[in-house]
Amino acid sequence: MLRLLKLELQKLLLNRASKILIFISFILPFFVIILSSLRINFFGLFVLELGHYGLFNFPIVWHITTFFAAQFKFFFAIVVVSMIGNEYSNKTIKQNLIDGLSKKEFILSKFYTIVFFSAVATVLIFIICLSIGLYYSSISEVALIFRETEFLLAYFVKLVGFFSLCLFLGMLVKRSAFALAFLFMLFIVEWILYGLMAWKLDENTADRIQNFFPLKSMWKLIDQPFQRIAISKMPDSKALIYDFAVHWYEVAIVLGWTAIFIFLSYRLLKQRDL
Hints:
Layout: H1 2-13, H2 16-27, H3 31-36, E1 39-42, E2 46-49, H4 60-69, H5 73-89, H6 92-98, H7 103-136, H8 142-145, H9 150-173, H10 176-200, H11 203-210, H12 214-221, H13 226-233, H14 248-271
Antiparallel strand pairs: 1-2
GO molecular function, one term: ABC-type transporter activity
Protein name: ABC transporter permease subunit
Keywords: Membrane, Transmembrane, Transmembrane helix
């Protein structure tokens, strides 16, 4: 595993564009710290300070930070599809196989890289959440501080699942731009199917089925925190109550899709004449 990971990291770090995109991918989540310290003076009428509204207290900070940090995953998605596009355009995939790397090891090297960068991103988010929470929150009890850290697991699984999808699309079309276009098309197709199901069946049934779609299942891992913030300010409003927890079956669905995407990537490579 380490040999395959080292091989892939060497390829990425020798590529200037990949290095820049990886750097951006890891730097952007730190903007949550800037967001937490944001202080806006509205013409002297009042001052908006997000950190003083309890938005970054424990345990809600784990939910809010992972949700917003997950929106930056598209930068590393470009790296993932570029990994495959460069392999085909530079003929390095053929050379690697000639040098003794099996097709299974080739796909595993990509997957190990995806898991590695997802793990590094998750550790960074853990540090960011802990730092912001300790600064703004008055909670000092360890059990309360680390409550809801399951959002970190959801964040990690979400990244691995999404990047595995990007890997499959890169293998499918062999070109970075086309792979990203297919990703956007998949998003549109999922919503078209949802609309058809809602029309033919009913909205509740359509919602349940849609939660099994690849992109939607990844989105559902970390639900939007806006209603939760509103509930904390208006606790008596029952209309705002919703289920924002991370559920085991949501994690299982995304892990299932991850396994499917890696397997399909391997099958594509195995059947192709390079």
